[in-house]
Write a structure and sequence with these properties.
- With about 475 residues, the chain is an alpha/beta fold.
- The protein is about 35% helix and about 20% strand.
- The chain is built from 19 helices and 15 strands.
- The chain has a five-stranded parallel beta sheet, with helices on both faces. The chain has a five-stranded parallel beta sheet with strand order 6-13-7-8-9. A three-stranded antiparallel beta sheet has the order 10-11-12, with no helix packed on it.
- The longest helix is centred in the last third of the chain and has 22 residues.
Length: about 475
């Protein structure tokens, strides 16, 4: 620990965002960067706590105090090496992770945690820019073959870990490009796709084979993979979106959020659109139903496409600002979150339930909503209607209500895997499914969650598959 008093003398300094007046006209990443000296100072604020709650809060168990100290001292190679010990893709999590580590940082008690997420992204960028991150193919190969179905963060993490063990790994992806939800579900203004491409180049150089435009269960049978490979890892995500069915749900102008975001990314990448119609927000009154990150991404994308007005509603009550006694430190706080997209111009409303979609000649024109109250009964929140309604003008509605479980049709149905009570692939403690040789990881097994948790799940399933293959050898 080079400067044990830095946390008392150096204030937290965030890189911040590009000016709203500039960023809303392009899809470039909104987050700015600090210069190296400022970044070193921010890393020096880590207190090297006796009990590193940041380490506890991270699903990957990243060693924050160690690499923060190395970054402060300018040892970028050593810092990124320690990051890679626990995290395959710090360049991804450094951009899109909600930073559970920062919320658990002891300095969060003073509302000034170490800028761990930004530091993580910065260390990785320095390492890439200086050529410190290079392909490291395995020295020896086994005779085992593993098929990974799905190329999101869980699938890629599992593939890299298994490849490092010497197994021959093939990743199958139904879409045109590799990356899964990171590629198609996260807008460029949060994660530039060049960040994914440079990492994929390394994975290919390490020997992983990628097969895009290949939907298992349609273009190639699942049973064929089971017969040809020694193990199969399902990493298809939780692709079934949650829906609502008020009156007028069949009106034109109502779409799932992820379809809208994926189409927007396809346009930017110059790919052929895979949706039956083009959805564009220019000149529209947009209503986003759902207050989470996906809804926020719809807000930012709609603004960049030229929407006249963007409104976002949430059925739950407005979270408290700053502190919430129900989620105390070091737990992740349930408090009001204002994203960069919200700052760009968005009307936000809470405790509203969608009652009906209204329109003429089959086209959506407005949405009827009702104010609700939430009261605790037997320790659980229960929604109660108030009778107070209002109409919100809307030409486009995006349903950002989360996901219920992976798509059952096709791959999973052909394999005949069992499901848990929520419809996810049922797995044991080793993440093995009910079908021999078939494992499941990430959102397909847990339900929709965070990129950082998906990476952790991918690493865990790789350990189990490797152990099984070595026992059978």
């Amino acid at each position: 620990m080079g400067n044990p008093k830095a946390f008392m003398t150096i204030p937290r300094k965030e890189a911040g965002y590009r000016p709203v007046s500039e960023r809303i006209y392009d899809f470039g990443e909104v987050e700015q960067t600090l210069n190296r000296e400022d970044r070193k100072l921010q890393a020096s604020r880590c207190m090297d706590c006796g009990i590193p709650f940041c380490h506890w809060g991270c699903p990957l168990g990243n060693k924050m105090p160690e690499w923060q100290d190395l970054a402060y001292k300018g040892h970028w190679k050593k810092a990124v090496d320690i990051l890679h010990e626990t995290n395959n893709f710090p360049d991804f999590t450094g951009r899109v992770c909600p930073a559970l580590c920062e919320k658990a940082c002891v300095l969060s008690l003073q509302n000034a945690p170490v800028t761990i997420r930004e530091n993580e992204a910065a260390v990785t960028e320095v390492a890439f820019n200086e050529g410190l991150i290079k392909a490291d193919p395995p020295k020896h190969r086994t005779d085992k073959k593993v098929a990974v179905i799905g190329s999101g963060p869980a699938g890629l993490a599992a593939a890299q870990q298994l490849n490092r063990k010497g197994h021959r790994v093939t990743v199958f992806e139904k879409d045109n490009s590799i990356g899964g939800l990171m590629r198609y579900g996260i807008p460029n203004f949060k994660l530039n796709k060049n960040i994914i491409d440079r990492r994929l180049k390394i994975l290919e150089e390490e020997g992983i084979v990628f097969k895009p435009n290949t939907e298992v269960g349609k273009d190639i049978s699942a049973k064929r993979l089971v017969s040809e490979f020694d193990a199969v890892c399902i990493a298809i995500g939780a692709g079934r979106p949650r829906d609502i069915t008020p009156e007028g749900r069949d009106l034109k102008g109502i779409y799932y959020a992820m379809d809208f975001l994926a189409q927007g990314n396809q346009v930017l990448m110059g790919e052929k659109l895979t949706f039956p119609e083009t959805v564009f927000a220019k000149g529209k009154h947009v209503l986003v139903i759902g207050g989470g990150d996906t809804g926020s991404d719809c807000v930012g994308t709609s603004i960049r496409q030229g929407a006249v007005q963007v409104t976002q509603i949430e059925i739950m009550p407005k979270p408290p600002i700053d502190k919430n006694p129900e989620t105390p430190w070091p737990y992740y706080p349930y408090v009001l979150k204002t994203s960069s997209s919200h700052e760009e111009g968005c009307v936000r409303k809470w405790a509203l339930n969608t009652v009906a979609f209204k329109g003429k000649n089959g086209q959506l024109e407005e949405v009827l909503v009702e104010e609700v109250e939430w009261k605790k009964e037997d320790g659980r929140l229960k929604m109660q209607p108030t009778g107070k309604t209002e109409s919100i003008k809307a030409d486009l509605v995006f349903l950002a209500l989360g996901f219920v479980h992976p798509v059952h049709e096709g791959l999973l149905a052909e394999l005949g895997v069992e499901y848990d009570a929520r419809g996810n692939v049922a797995v044991d403690k080793r993440q093995q499914s009910s079908v021999a040789k078939v494992f499941a990881t990430g959102d397909a097994a847990t339900g929709a969650s965070l990129v950082v948790k998906a990476i952790a799940s991918g690493r865990k399933v790789a350990e189990s598959i490797d152990e099984k293959l070595r026992v059978e050898n």
